[in-house]
Specification:
The protein is mainly alpha-helical. Helices cover about 70% and strands about 0% of the residues. The protein contains three helices and no strands. The longest helix has 17 residues. The chain is globular, with a radius of gyration of 10 Å. The model has no long low-confidence stretch (mean pLDDT about 95).
């Protein structure tokens, strides 16, 4: 699996926070799919980012 760069981490975090604020569950679902497909569930950054989700998707 690929390693997450700081730039990618910041990009995903911003997208997650914006989707939370707008209550856009479909955007969160897409972000989740991208994170898991690209970095896997074993990545600590992915684990933390998924914990930021305000909604279950």
């Amino acid at each position: 699996m690929e390693r997450m760069t700081t730039r990618d981490y910041d990009h995903y975090k911003s997208a997650i926070l914006a989707a939370n604020d707008s209550q856009d569950k479909e955007a969160l679902r897409q972000i989740k799919k991208q994170l898991i497909a690209r970095y896997g569930l074993d990545n600590d950054d992915v684990y933390y980012l998924l914990k930021l989700f305000r909604y279950n998707v």
